[in-house]
Amino acid sequence: MSAKKILKTIKLIKGQVKDCIIPSVTQISAKHDAYRVLVSCILSLRTKDKTTIAASQRLFKVADKPKSMLKLTVGKIRKLIYPVGFYRNKSRVILNLSRKLLEDYSGKVPDRLDALLGLKGVGRKTANLVLGLGFGIPAICVDTHVHRISNRLGWIKTNDPEETEFALQKIVPRKEWIELNTILVTFGQNLCFPVSPFCSKCKVYRFCKRRGVARSR
Questions:
Q1: Residues forming the active site
Q2: Can you list the domains of the chain with their CATH numbers?
Q3: Mind listing the pLDDT tens digit of every residue in the chain (217 residues)?
Q4: CA 22 to chain centre
Q5: Contacts 24+ apart (CB under 8 A), 75-79
Q6: What is the reported pTM?
């Protein structure tokens, strides 16, 4: 698909989801604080947005910087972030990350992909979201929604998120990279479901290859 058609499709999706609730990490990133984005990304894994936002608010009210986070015990963090998925493990990850940031980066989140990936517990999805939402650096964050929808639309044909990231970098205009995750996640959560998507309500239906869609509404 040409860049022109992709831009048109993105514009239509933006219009369709403009009144929907945006993903939790995007909401939290409104403060443009890379540390908050990083921590909330970790909390959001395998967790519903509503739970992630509530847990993030409780935690950041007590500690919103690496230095203040290290004053808390694992048990305290665990209580603050419960009931996010894998909260026991995430409490340790957050504490260890905060320690690493203080020891190696003077308490600041690095703004380089390689440095972010060097932090234990941080994968490409989280690293790219931190770059985009935390620093405003163009990066494409690929989660299950982005991978599924970009393949379903026929933009690309890939097998895994990392392959999808590199494929999208070649065809999506750079100015759309940061916002792409927010747009497609919102679209995926409200209309373009994994099973039985609302094709009858979709404004991009005529541009969609509908790959992998066996049944729709």
A1: 125, 143
A2: 3-21+140-207 (1.10.1670.10), 24-135 (1.10.340.30)
A3: 778 889 999 999 999 999 999 999 999 998 889 999 999 999 999 999 999 999 999 999 999 999 999 999 999 999 999 999 999 999 999 999 999 999 999 999 999 999 999 999 999 999 999 999 999 999 999 999 999 999 999 999 999 999 999 999 999 999 999 999 999 999 999 999 999 999 999 999 999 999 989 888 8
A4: 11
A5: none
A6: 0.93
Contact between 135 and 34 (Cβ < 8 Å): yes
Task: Please report, for residues 4, 32, 125, 164, 175, the alpha-carbon distance to residue 38 in angstroms, rounded to integers and kept in the order given.
Answer: 33, 11, 11, 22, 22
Counting DSSP H helices and E strands in the chain, the numbers are 13, 0
Burial 203-213 (b: 16+ CB within 10 A, else e): ebeebbeeeeb
Nearest-10 Cα torsion for 146, 152, 158, 161: 20
Residue pointed to by tokens 């239906």: 205
- Please return the burial class of 135, using the count of CB atoms within 10 Å of its CB with bins 0-12, 13-18 and 19+: middle
Burial of 91 (0-12, 13-18, 19+ CB in 10 A): buried
User: How far is it, in rounded angstroms, from Cα 2 to Cα 155?
Assistant: 9
Distance of alpha carbon 57 from alpha carbon 43, whole angstroms: 11
The C-alpha R_g of the chain, in whole angstroms, comes to 18
